[in-house]
Design a protein that fits this description.
89 residues; 1 helix; 6-stranded mixed sheet
Amino acid sequence: MAFTPASLTRLAGASGISLWHYSTADTIADVNTAGYFNAAANMLGLNDVIIAVTSTGGTPVVSHTYVNSNTGTAVDVVDGVAITNTDSD
């Protein structure tokens, strides 16, 4: 699938770093692909943190990633880390 700009929301920012939320039906592998966020190159800065919520098959996966490089037209994010949780009740 493709990046959807309306699904990227800036949550906070200070000292040149922003925190973003992004939700999509794409897989985390798609989101981590170099160039996925190219359409947001003018918004995302180096080291900006993105909380990505991906949902394939109805089960959401929350991952933490950040912008590894941004040339002004090409954006790359690190593979990120899945945030796991347990709901034992």
